[in-house]
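One-letter codes give the sequence; the integers encode the fold. A sample entry reads:
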Amino acid sequence: MFRIFRRCARADREFCDVQRAGQALLQMHAEMPWPDAPGSVTATAQDASGAALDSDFLPPEFRAPSRQDVVGFMMPWDQPLVIDSEVRECPECGAYRNWVVLCMRDDSVWLRCRVGHTTRELGLDAAWYNRHSGPADHWHPTLEDGLRHLGH
């Protein structure tokens, strides 16, 4: 029984020694002065006059749109949409399923049927949309591109 505890104490001591060596190595690298390589972030952060450049260094195709750039969000809603115990139908064609739900920047919610009729739904708001939608997985430059992506 005594030997088991000695082995554990020795293993703990060895583990602590390794941790101390790792901490010393990290500290040494943190204190080393690293020269700026050509093209590094710190080297390109300032131009020749010393003024700071634009901090958004990603190419436009990799940038996420800002809130001002986004007109709205959309999601498919394949099952019948029930609001206040009523199944919503398209007022023009009578469709009651396969909606595209559009949530606009002004927090209004619009329904678009498979045929392409669009109507504002006053019984829904942005809070409802946020509760029922998942995270945005694609950004589309136009409404038509988004509808094509959703199969409409």
Q: What stands out?
A: The first strand starts at residue 72 and ends at 77. The chain has a mean pLDDT of 75.
